[in-house]
Amino acid sequence: MKFAQFEYSDSFDVTPEVQSAFDHNGFIIVRKLFDCDEIDKIKKALEEYGLVENYSYGIRDRQGKEPRLLVWSFPGEDVTGMVSRCEKVVNTCEKLMGGDELYHYHSKIVMKEPKTGGGFEWHQDYGYWYQNGCLFPDLVSLMFALDPCTKENGGLQVLVGSHKCGRINHAPVEGQQGADIEQVGLIKKKCEHRYINLQPGDGLFIHCNLLKCSGPNESDSKQWSFNCAYNKKSNDPAIDHHHPQYTELHKVPNTALKECQKFDDFNGKYFLDPRYDKTVIASYKSWEASYEKNEHRKKDVFILKSN
Questions:
Q1: Which among 91, 106, 93 is positioned nearest to 251, based on CA atoms?
Q2: What is this structure's pTM?
Q3: Per its Swiss-Prot or TrEMBL entry, what cofactor is needed (predicted)?
Q4: Are 19 and 207 in contact (CB under 8 A)?
Q5: Is residue 302's pLDDT more than 70?
Q6: What is the dihedral of CA 165, 173, 132, 108, to 10 degrees?
Q7: How far apart are CA 240 and CA 48, in angstroms?
Q8: What is the mean pLDDT of residues 263-271?
Q9: β-strand partners of 283
């Protein structure tokens, strides 16, 4: 099958062609999923109201560089919450996964600063989500670009169709989880290795078993992306962990993002405290100092439930 990409419009839907491309490749690209005004609004929410400053943390890669993450459990009512609740995102994910009800597993911002932003090892999202008690690979995610994502600034790489190989064992690599490198080498012989170039607003819908990685940001410009992950209601995790159990997701119309004026209402989002994430080793010294200094954030982080 020819590599497939699509362009978003108000009439975009998961047609048989779209579904076939996702099932064959393990992903689809939807260009211009978010427009310039929406991207500007999301950036404003992230950069001007303390989200990145107060809640992000780094995880080291093999070279000792650090991509930074900002992770939250529940969408909330703010601008960033409208992203993961809007129909063009949730409905597309549900249809790609067979039409079953999904819930918001978590959202995150991946940040690679110029020259210092690190990469991610070859991995499957399900490689470590399985460790969280998600017993079936019934998860899907959307990644969309806030800045241009290219080979030069550490953009995403995928092995096309590798989701059909099933779950691969993962183990710690520095601060991250990486797929078994020998198995990845064998899969590379069968599956096309492709760089995914995205412009701001372009979206990539990804099956949880797709093998992907990214390099460090060697450019002079930052590279940020927004990621929303969803799990099937029927795949409610078997154990309590640092991401949510099933919680009903309340969708909003696509207009909600532009209409929302809540930039600093973080009530109920529960940002991830990296000390409770068992699948990564975070470089959270600066995060911890900020946490202790800002009393307000203590009520905003997700505290691990006791089993």
A1: 91
A2: 0.91
A3: Fe cation
A4: no
A5: no
A6: -100
A7: 33
A8: 94
A9: 58
